[in-house]
Design a protein that fits this description.
CATH architecture of the largest domain in chain C: Orthogonal Bundle
Number of domains of chain C: 2
Low-confidence stretches of chain A: none
CATH class of the largest domain in chain C: Mainly Alpha
InterPro entries (chain A): ABC_transporter_permease, MetI-like, MetI-like_sf
Number of strands of chain A: 2
Main location (chain A): membrane
Number of domains of chain A: 1
CATH topology of the largest domain in chain C: MetI-like fold
Largest interface: A-C, 109 and 98 residues
Keywords (chain A): Cell membrane, Membrane, Transmembrane, Transmembrane helix, Transport
Mean pLDDT of chain A: 85
Order of helices and strands of chain A: HEEHHHHHHHHHHHH
Oligomer: heterotrimer
Shape of chain A: flat
Radius of gyration of chain A: 24 Å
Structural class of chain A: mainly alpha
Chains: A mainly alpha (about 290), B alpha+beta (about 325), C mainly alpha (about 280)
Membrane topology (chain A): Multi-pass membrane protein
Largest sheet of chain C: none
Protein name (chain A): ABC-type sorbitol//mannitol transporter SmoKGFEm, subunit F
Helix content of chain A: over 70%
Order of helices and strands of chain C: HHHHHHHHHHHHHH
Chain lengths: ~290, ~325, ~280
C-alpha cells in the first residue's frame, strides 16, 4: 500500500541489488555453460573449439567423478548424521538447569567461528599427525601404534573436522528452537502422565522437526561446497580418496587447466545443489507467508 | 484556510474497489468525523486525503487548489496515527521538532515552537524523555504536539484513541475538542466509535463499504437517520428494529425505536415481552427484553424501574419516536 | 522432588555439560596454549599442558617471517569493506521490499536467496578468467566485490526481516512530517533499525572473515587474507606448531569474540529467518 511516488522510488532502490545479483548469477553461469561445450585448455590458448557434450561425457564417465560423487555423498551424510544427532543431544543437555550455562554455550559454539583453514590445519597437525599429534601421543601412552589418519582414513578424518565445525551450528539452532517450546505444553504432558521418553518423542521432537529440516538443508548447501578443509589437509588424496565434486572441479580447471572439463563439472555441481536448494526454498517460502 | 473537497474520488486495490465514486465537502474550521464499522473504507479515505495513498480516479482539492498528485509532505496536513507513530529513538522534544527540522526552520524558531506546543499539551516535564518512557496518554499528546507545531491547514486523526483505556479516552476526547475550539483548524477524525463521533463532531460522515450513507450534524443523524444503517449505527445503545406484521401496522417494512424512547409498563402497551437481563446502573436501568415474536429489544429506563429477570413487560413508544423504513431500508417520511 | 534431588541432578548436568563443552572447545584451547610454547615444547612427548615455559616469541616471529599483519589487515579490509558495501546496497533493497511490497516481492526475495545456493565451483572458472583479464586477481578490490555479492542475499534477507518489524505507520508519519525519502531512511528508518543493522553487520563480517573458497582461489600473495595465509602452513616446511598456533590464535580471536556477542542474531541470519 503506497503511492506511485514511493513505488517508483522502491523500484529504483531495489535495482542495484537485483542487477548486481543478476549479473553475478547470469554472466558467469552462462560462461560456465558455454565453456562446458568447448575444448578449452588454459595451456593452449586460442585453440578452443566446440565439442558438444564431449566434456560431459568425459567428466561423467571418469572414475574420478564416481569417486568424487561417492565422497561428496559420504561427506555430506556423515557430517549430517553426526551434527544432527549430536546437536539434538547437546541442545537437550544445554536446556537443562545447570551452573554456568552461558559459558558452556559459548564453549560449544566456538568452533563455528574458526576459519576452515585454521581448523583443518590444527586438526591435521596437532591432533591427527601420526608423530606429533595428540592422538598419536594418546595411542602411544596406551601402548598402541599411532594411526595415520590422513593416509588411512582421509575422508573419515575430514568428516570429523567438518563435523566439529558444524556441530555448533546445529546445536545453536536446535537449542534456540527448544527454548522457544512452550513449557506449559511439557507440564501439561507431565500432568497427562507422559514419561520422559514419550515427552521427547511426542512433544519435543515434533517441535524441533521443522528446525531440523532447515538445519539439514542449509548444512547440505554448505557441505556440498566443502573445499578449504580438503585443500589444506589431503589435496584430495591419496588418489581420489578424499576428493569431492567441488575439489574435483577445482583440480580439473585450476590445476590441470582444463577449463572445458572443469566447466562441465561445475554445471553438474550446480544441478546437484539445485536439487537441495529447491527443497530449502520451499521451506523458507512457506515461512515467508506466515 | 483548511477546506477539503473530494470529487468523484475512487480507490481500488487491484480488482477490489474499496471506494466507489465519492464526493465530499469539508469546510474550513469544521470538525468532521468519519464513522463506520471496520472495513468501511474510512481509514482509506483519510489516507487518500493525506496523500499516503494515490486516488484511483477523481480529485482532491485543499483550499480549492488541486492536491491530487501532491506528495503528502506538501499538502500542509498533519496526521495523528492510531499507534501514535512516534520516533522511538528521539526524545519528545526531537519528535515534536522533527517536522520543523524537515521544513528547514532555524533552531531558535524550532525551540520556541516546540516549547509552546509542549506547554499547551502539558508535556514540558517530559520533554527530554523517549517515547518508551511515556504513558499512553502522554504519547498521544506528543503525537498531537508533533501535528500542531506545523500549523497545518487541517489535522487528520486516524482512530487516535483506540489504544487508550476507557477513562483516558474520555479525557483525551475532551482535550481534542478543546484543541479544536482553540485552534479553529479543520479536523478530520476517523473512528469506529459512534460515541466519539457524536460528542466531537460538527459534521459526521457515516460510511459503509466505501459509500457515504449520510452526512450531517450529530443531532440530525440522531433525529433523522436517512436509512436503517445510520439509524442502527448512531445512538447508544443501538436502535431496536421490528419487521413483519408489527411494522406493517405502521405502514413500513421495518420500524425502529431507540431504547431511550421506550416506556415500560406491567399492564399494557404496544409490544409484550419478557425481561431477560436487567442491568441496574443506578442512574439508568437497561432491560433486555425478548418480545413475544422472538425479537430482542433493549430498553433504557430510569433508575427506579423495579423489573427483574422473568417479569412480563409491555413496551410502547410515542408515534413520533417510531422510525419507519421501506424494503430498501430507506427512511420513510 | 526434594531439594537435594534437584540439586544433585543439577550438579550432574553441570558436570556433564562442562565436560562436553570443554571437550568441544579443547582444540581451540590447545591451539591457544601451544601458541605460547617454544617449538620444542610444542612437539614434546608426552605433551605439555601447562608446565612449559610461556613465551611470546611466536607472535613476534610470525610477523617477522611473513608480514603477518599485512594479511590480517587484508582480512579486515575484505570483511569490513564487503560488509559496508553490501549494507549500502541492501538497506535500499530491503526498504523497498519491506515497506513497498509489490506482487513480485516475495519472488524477488526468494530468487535473491537462491543465488546464495549456487555452488561456487559453478562460476569459479569464469570469475577466475574475468579477474585475470581485468587485473582483479589477487587484489583487495576484487575480493571485496566477490564477497559483497556472495553475502548480499543474506544481508538483504536479514535486513528485510528486521525492517518488517518496524511499523509502517512511523515511516508514514515521517512522510507526513515533510521528510523526503532520504530523510525518512536516514533520520527514521536507519536509527530505528540500528540493532538489526548491527547484528547483520556482525554476522556478515564473520562470514566474510572465514570465507575460504574465493579467498583461496583468487589470491596469491599480495591480497591474501588470513584464510589463505594460514593455508600456506599446510606445506611440510611449515610444520612449526607453535607458530602455526600463534598465527591461528590471532586469526580466530577477533571473530570468536564477535561471534559470542552475536549468537542470538546468528540463528536468524543463518537460517534465513526460518528459525527465530
Amino acid at each position: 500500500m503506497a503511492t506511485d511516488h514511493s513505488r517508483i522510488a522502491a523500484r529504483f532502490m531495489i535495482s542495484p541489488a537485483v542487477l548486481l545479483l543478476l549479473g553475478w548469477m547470469i554472466v558467469p553461469l552462462s560462461m560456465t555453460l558455454y565453456f562446458s561445450f568447448l575444448d578449452y585448455n588454459l595451456l593452449s590458448p586460442g585453440m578452443e573449439e566446440w565439442i558438444g557434450f564431449m566434456n560431459y561425457e568425459y567428466f561423467l564417465t571418469d572414475p574420478a567423478f564416481f569417486a568424487a560423487l561417492g565422497n561428496t555423498f559420504l561427506l555430506v551424510a556423515g557430517v549430517l548424521v553426526i551434527t544432527i544427532t549430536g546437536g539434538v543431544a547437546l541442545a537437550l543437555l544445554l536446556d537443562q538447569p545447570m551452573w554456568g550455562q552461558g559459558i558452556v554455550r559459548i564453549l560449544v559454539i566456538a568452533p563455528f567461528f574458526v576459519m576452515p583453514t585454521v581448523s583443518a590445519l590444527v586438526w591435521k597437525n596437532m591432533f591427527m599427525n601420526p608423530v606429533n599429534g595428540l592422538f598419536a601421543h594418546a595411542a602411544k601412552a596406551m601402548g598402541l601404534a599411532p594411526f595415520d589418519f590422513f593416509a588411512h582414513a582421509p575422508l573419515f578424518s575430514i568428516i570429523m573436522i567438518v563435523a566439529w565445525q558444524w556441530l555448533p551450528f546445529a546445536t545453536l539452532i536446535l537449542l534456540t528452537v527448544l527454548q522457544s517450546l512452550d513449557k506449559e505444553q511439557l507440564e501439561a504432558a507431565k500432568m497427562d502422565g507422559a514419561r520422559k521418553m514419550s515427552r521427547f518423542v511426542h512433544i519435543i521432537l515434533p517441535h524441533m522437526s521443522r528446525a531440523i529440516t532447515v538445519v539439514i538443508l542449509i548444512q547440505t548447501i554448505f557441505l556440498l561446497s566443502i573445499f578449504a578443509e580438503i585443500l589444506v589437509t589431503t589435496n584430495g588424496g591419496p588418489g581420489y580418496a578424499s576428493t569431492n565434486i567441488t575439489y574435483l572441479v577445482y583440480a580439473q580447471s585450476l590445476l590441470q587447466f582444463d577449463v572445458g572439463g572443469g566447466s562441465a563439472g561445475g554445471i553438474v555441481a550446480v544441478v546437484l545443489a539445485n536439487i537441495v536448494a529447491i527443497f530449502l526454498m520451499r521451506m523458507i517460502g512457506k515461512n515467508l507467508e506466515a | 484556510m483548511g477546506s477539503i473537497t473530494l470529487e468523484n474520488v475512487t480507490k481500488s486495490f487491484g480488482d477490489v474497489e474499496v471506494i466507489p465514486p465519492l464526493n465530499l465537502e469539508i469546510n474550513e474550521g469544521e470538525f468532521v468525523v468519519f464513522v463506520g464499522p471496520s472495513g468501511c473504507g474510512k481509514s482509506t479515505l483519510l489516507r487518500l486525503i493525506a496523500g499516503l495513498e494515490d486516488v484511483s480516479s477523481g480529485s482532491i482539492a485543499i483550499d480549492r487548489e488541486d492536491a491530487t498528485s501532491i506528495r503528502p509532505a506538501r499538502r500542509g496536513l498533519a496526521m495523528v496515527f492510531q499507534s501514535y507513530a512516534l520516533y522511538p529513538h528521539m526524545s519528545v522534544r526531537k519528535n515534536i521538532a522533527f517536522p520543523l527540522k524537515m521544513a528547514g526552520l532555524e533552531q531558535a524558531d524550532i525551540d520556541k515552537k516546540v516549547d509552546a506546543a509542549a506547554n499547551i499539551l502539558n508535556l514540558s516535564d517530559y520533554i527530554d524523555r523517549k517515547p518508551g518512557q511515556l504513558s499512553g496518554g502522554q504519547r498521544q499528546r506528543v503525537a498531537i504536539g508533533r501535528a500542531i507545531v506545523r500549523e497545518p491547514k487541517a489535522f487528520l486523526f486516524d482512530e487516535p484513541l483506540s489504544n487508550l483505556d476507557a477513562a483516558l479516552r474520555v479525557n483525551m476526547r475532551l482535550e481534542i475538542s478543546e484543541l479544536h475550539q482553540d485552534l479553529k483548524t479543520t479536523m478530520v477524525y476517523v473512528t469506529h466509535d459512534q460515541v466519539e463521533a457524536m460528542t466531537m463532531a460538527d459534521k459526521i460522515v457515516v460510511l459503509r463499504a466505501g459509500v457515504i450513507e449520510q452526512v450531517g450534524s450529530p443531532l440530525e443523524l440522531y433525529r433523522k437517520p436517512a436509512n436503517k444503517f445510520v439509524a442502527g449505527f448512531i445512538g447508544s445503545p443501538n436502535m431496536n428494529f421490528l419487521s413483519g406484521e408489527a411494522a406493517q401496522k405502521h405502514g413500513a417494512h421495518t420500524i425502529g425505536v431507540r431504547p431511550e424512547h421506550l416506556a415500560c409498563s406491567r399492564e399494557s402497551g404496544m409490544w409484550k415481552g419478557t425481561v431477560g437481563v436487567a442491568e441496574h446502573l443506578g442512574s439508568d436501568t437497561f432491560l433486555y427484553v425478548t418480545l413475544n415474536d422472538g425479537s430482542n429489544f433493549t430498553v433504557r429506563s430510569d433508575g427506579n424501574v423495579d423489573l427483574n429477570h422473568g417479569d412480563t413487560v409491555y413496551l410502547s413508544a410515542e408515534p413520533e419516536n417510531i422510525y419507519r423504513f421501506d424494503e430498501n431500508e430507506q427512511a420513510i417520511g | 522432588m526434594s531439594h537435594t534431588a534437584i540439586d544433585s541432578r543439577k550438579i550432574i548436568m553441570t558436570a556433564i555439560a562442562w565436560g562436553i563443552g570443554l571437550l568441544i572447545f579443547f582444540p581451540i584451547l590447545w591451539t591457544i596454549l601451544t601458541s605460547f610454547k617454544t617449538e620444542a615444547d610444542a612437539i614434546a612427548s608426552p605433551p605439555m599442558f601447562l608446565g612449559f615455559d610461556w613465551t611470546l616469541e611466536n607472535y613476534t616471529e610470525v610477523q617477522d617471517r611473513s608480514n603477518y599483519f599485512q594479511h590480517f589487515w587484508n582480512s579486515v579490509v575484505i570483511s569490513v569493506g564487503s560488509t559496508l558495501l553490501g549494507l549500502l546496497i541492501a538497506i535500499l533493497a530491503a526498504w523497498s521490499m519491506a515497506f513497498v511490497p509489490a506482487k513480485g516481492t516475495k519472488n524477488v526475495l526468494m530468487w535473491m536467496l537462491s543465488t546464495k545456493m549456487l555452488p561456487p565451483v559453478g562460476v569459479l572458472i569464469p570469475i577466475y578468467l574475468l579477474f585475470r583479464d581485468t587485473g582483479l586477481l589477487d587484489t583487495l578490490t576484487g575480493l571485496v566485490l566477490v564477497l559483497t555479492l556472495i553475502n548480499l542475499p543474506i544481508i538483504v534477507w536479514m535486513l528485510y526481516t528486521y525492517f518488517k518489524e518496524i511499523p509502517g505507520e512511523i515511516l508514514e508519519a515521517a512522510r507526513m512530517d515533510g521528510a523526503s525519502l532520504w530523510a525518512e531512511i536516514i533520520h527514521v528508518l536507519t536509527p530505528m533499525a540500528v540493532p538489526g543493522i548491527a547484528s547483520t553487520m556482525l554476522l556478515n563480517i564473520i562470514l566474510a572473515w572465514n570465507e575460504a573458497f574465493w579467498t583461496l582461489n583468487l589470491t596469491a600473495a599480495k591480497a591474501a587474507p588470513l584464510t589463505a595465509f594460514i593455508a600456506s602452513y599446510s606445506s611440510p616446511e611449515g610444520l612449526f606448531y607453535a607458530k602455526l598456533s600463534a598465527a591461528s590464535t590471532m586469526a580466530i580471536a577477533p571473530i570468536l569474540i564477535m561471534g559470542w556477542f552475536s549468537q542470538k542474531q546468528l540463528v536468524r541470519g543463518l537460517t534465513f529467518g526460518a528459525v527465530k
